[in-house]
Structure formats: structure tokens, C-alpha cells
Amino acid sequence: MGKTFETIDPRTGEVIARVAEGDKEDVDLAVKAARKAFDDGPWPRMSGAERGRIMMKYADIIDKHIEELAALDAIDAGKLFSWGKAVDIPTVARLIRYYAGAADKIHGEVLKMSRELHGYTLREPIGVAGHIIPWNFPSSMFFMMSAPALAAGCTMIVKPAEQTPLSALFYGHLAKQAGMPDGVINVITGYGPTAGAAIASHMDIDKVCFTGSTEVGRKIMQAAATSNLKQVSLELGGKSPLLIFDDADVDKAADLALLGILYNKANMFPLCDQLNDEFRLKCRGEICVASSRVFVQEGIYDEFVKKLKEKAKDWVVGDPFDPRSRLGPQVDKQQFDKILSYIEHGKREGASLLTGGKPVGKKGYFIEPTVFTDVKEDMMIATDEIFGPVMSLMKFKTIDEAIKKANNTKYGLAAGIVTKNLDVANTVSRSIRAGTIWINCYFAFDQDCSYGGYKMSGFGRHLGIEALHKFLQVKSVVTPIYNSPW
Ligand code: ADP
Fold first, then answer.
1. What pLDDT shows up at residue 265?
2. Phi, psi of 51 (to 5 degrees)
3. Which residue, among 253, 295, 294, 264, has the nearest Cα to 389 in the 3D structure?
4. How far apart are CA 196 and CA 198, in angstroms?
5. What per-residue confidence (pLDDT) applies to 486?
6. Of 260 and 110, which is predicted with more confidence?
7. Which residues line ligand 1 (CB under 6 A)?
8. Which of 38, 212, 221, 484 is least enclosed, having the fewest CB within 10 Å?
9. What's the subunit arrangement here (predicted)?
10. Does residue 261 contact residue 291 with C-beta atoms inside 8 Å?
11. Phi and psi dihedrals of 384, rounded to 5?
């Protein structure tokens, strides 16, 4: 209440603005507003078509502010401005339209009862949702999490990451312009252990949706369990493998491997231009599920290493507003230091630096694209989620070995396979325990294709109709067909 905190420009380390530091009391107020809007307000009561209409208007307004929104994510999160303008923010509008179109197609089923009863199900909004958002994709994550909840008829509290609060505040402002009723979207800026924790343990929130680290995900689940047993969905860490088989086109596979680790802060336009149309489409992505472990079959390993070293030089690190930059800065000093300490650890453990490994420039949080070879599976750089431009390159001989190595992780978010052999692609994709498998592509996200974790990468799915169902609950209604006593 009344407190503020600084948000930092990762290009310079300087303060951009002071933002309200929401805490438990502010969360209480926001939940009251969301509760009132859900219990008495028009949003869950209006027809799906009407909700969809307002959401479409919201998407149109966002389209009109693409430049400002891309600029906010560039100064606050270090996202490349050109990419934000061309892909990230238009993706947000597309996502909202996708779920707007689903809002009037929510229905239950007529049941085949075993007696003379008429039974059917209704799908009803779950209530007040709490969304806790990470900093890596401030815009797309905001809507990957909130757009299906809006379509379902939920009201919500949205807490952006403390590193990247600016675009979220603007989205809150634009919701009002679109005619979203009061109390439907409540943006709370603040820190995780205070504002975030207050959301996870709130007695009047019906569902908490979290995207972030596995460590914090565990806390969210504990808080939900010890408060009101609110439903939880978690999209957590990853250490996703990319498996490249001997029959792969080495040139394209090297591009894909770099894209797989660098995409979050990357400008993919130069890469897109080199690739054919089909491949380009497959590469267009919206979110980072970094392929931080790259396994290459021994027959092409040496050639692949050579190519990767050459191609890494093309990834120019620089200011996100400079069109020549292909890689922006890390989000803040803490993340910058964490990545550099993993790199030092990798060197101490005996891995070899093929390329990168150092900060770039004296100001801001820029790090070179970094590739380690001679990596052993149990080294920290191969087991921990680093969340930065650091790839561990390893070799394999057989398909079985590749599968075993790919699955040798506590995570299970995604995996990539590069091969022309359909049998290999089919066998491997069914054997890897991960929520998404990309064959001959990576980051091939689509709003209709849900994704989420196996194992300690979490549960519940983003995107697709699966994500809409996450915010609906099923009610069964039963009545006698004949001889009703009333
Ligand atoms: P990242 O790996 O993206 O830095 P975190 O898991 O630390 O992820 O943060 C993701 C989101 O979770 C942020 O919005 C952050 O403020 C929030 N958060 C951090 N700690 C907690 C907590 N103890 N309870 C609830 N939310 C938290």
C-alpha cells in the first residue's frame, strides 16, 4: 500500500520507472474486486458471444498499440523491438481472437444415463483466477494465461514478474478501453514472495495459474494446499533435448540448434530469410522452451561442431532497438550473474567452451551465445535450467542411447528431433517423456496446439482448447424423465 519499486532497463542497468509495490493488502483489494465482478457482475453472465465481442475489441485496440507495447517489452525485458513488433505483440492479439472465437462454443454433453433419468453436463467458469507471470515473455505469457480464462467467463488477478511490470500495466489500461467490465482484469505489480505468495494462499481465489521456476511452483502448490485447496496449474522449468540424427542436413540442424537455445531474446529474421518457406513457418515461435541439451549422432558430430561455431558468430549481441542485433540483453543483474556463474561452473567441471562464455560490453546485461562441448550428463550445465544462452553439446551412437539421454532429466517440457527417417521420428517421439515434441522444427507453437509439462515441468496446458478447459468446471444436472413426484 503506497510503496513503490524500481524497474530497470537491462540495456543500461538504469531505472526506467517506479511502479506500485503491491502486497497482501493490495491483493486482498484486487481479489474483492474480482470476486464481486464474478459473483454479481456481467462478465460470467453475459453470453459467450458478447464476451467474445469485447475480447475482439480488446485485440483490435492492442493491434493499434503494437509499437508502444513492443517498446515497453524492449526497455523493460530486453526483447528485440523489431521482433516484438512483428511477432510477439501480433501474437497476443491473435491469441485473444482465438479464445474470443471459442467463448460462444463452450458446452457440456447430454449423458446416456443407465436409468430413466435425463442427465447433462454444464461447463461453468471456475471463478476468480490468479495468474502469476514470468519475465521471459511478459506479453505472450500474460495472454496465454489470461485469454482462455476471459473466454471461460472468469475474473482475474494478474501479477507480472517484478522485472517486467510495464506492458502488463498498459494491457490493464487497454482492457478498460475495450469495455471490459470493472473487476474482470486486475493487474497487481509487486514481488513474488509478497504479492505472488498472497495470491497463492488467498482464500477467495479459485484457481492459481503459475509459470516460472520449479522451485517457486512447489511453493505455490504448498500454499494452495494449506489455504483453500484452490486448483493449481503449473508450467515450470525445462532442460529440453534436441536430438540430431546422422541423416540430418547439418547446416539446417546447426541453425535450428542455435535458434533452440537463443530464441527468447533473438531476432529470427536473418534465419527466416535463409530458410525455405515451409521451414520458416515452422520456426515462428512465441515462447522459450530452450533446447539447452543438444545431442548429435557421432557420424555428423565433428561437422556439426564446426558449423555451429561458424554460425554462432552471426548472432550479433546488442541493443534490442538496433535492427542489426540478433540477441538482446538478459533481463536483470541477478539473471546475468547466475548465467555467468553457470558458465564458470561448466569450465571448472571440465567442459570445453566452443564459443562465447563472456559478457558483451561494459554496460547492461549482455552475454555471448555460449556453447559447451565435452559435456558429461551429470554436469550442472547439463542438468540445471540456466535460462540463458548456454548450450550443452553431447554425442550419441544409437537411437536407444539418444532416448535414454534425452529422458535423463527431471524435466519434461519439450524435445526436438531432426531426422529424415520416419521410423526414427516416430519411435523417438513416442519414447520421450515431454509435453511437446517438434520433429524437424523447433518452437513451432500455434494457438491451437497446447503445450505444458511432463514430470517436474508441471501440469496443466497452455494454448489450445485444453487451456480453456482449465478455467471451466463440469457440473452434472440430473432429473427424472417420467413419474417425477412433483
Ligand atoms: P523465473 O525463473 O521466471 O525468475 P520465478 O519462479 O522466480 O521465475 O518467478 C516467476 C513469477 O513467480 C514472478 O511473477 C515472481 O514474482 C513470482 N514468484 C516468485 N516467488 C514467488 C512466491 N514465493 N510465491 C508466489 N509467486 C512468486
1. 52
2. -60, -45
3. 264
4. 5
5. 66
6. 110
7. 132-135, 159, 161-162, 191-193, 196-197, 200, 212-213, 216, 219-220
8. 484
9. Homotetramer.
10. yes
11. -95, 150
Order the strands of the 414-418 sheet from edge to edge. 352-355, 370-373, 390-396, 293-297, 241-244, 414-418, 436-439
Q: Which helix (H) or strand (E) holds 90?
A: helix 89-102
Q: Report CA 28 to chain centroid distance, whole Å.
A: 27
What's the complex ipTM? 0.98
Task: Please indicate whether residue 215 is annotated as part of the active site.
Answer: no
Task: Please identify which of the residues 21, 162, 235, 368 carries the catalytic annotation.
Answer: 235
d(CA 425, CA 418): 8
CB atoms within 10 A of CB 68: 14
Q: Which residues of 45-64 are buried (b: 16+ CB within 10 A; e: fewer)?
A: ebebeebbbbbbbbbebbbe
**Secondary structure in 3-state letters for 414-455:** EEEEECCCHHHHHHHHHHCCCCEEEECCCCCCCCCCCEECCH
Q: Name the residue at shortest CA distance from atom 27 of ligand 1.
A: 192
pLDDT bin (cut points 50, 70, 90) of residue 325 is confident
Place of cell 540424427: 245
pLDDT digits (tens, 9 = 90+) for 59-97: 999 999 999 999 999 999 988 899 899 989 999 999 999
Polymer length of the chain:
486
- At 410, the amino acid letter reads K
The protein residue whose alpha carbon is closest to atom 21 in ligand 1 is 192
C-alpha–C-alpha distance, residues 268 and 285, integer Å: 10
Q: Output the CA 471–ligand 1 centroid distance in Å.
A: 21
What interhelical angle do 138-152 and 66-77 show, nearest 10?
Answer: 120
Residue 451 burial (10 A CB sphere; 0-12, 13-18, 19+): buried
- Specify the pLDDT at position 48: 98
Question: Which ligand 1 atom sits closest to the C-alpha of 387?
Answer: 2
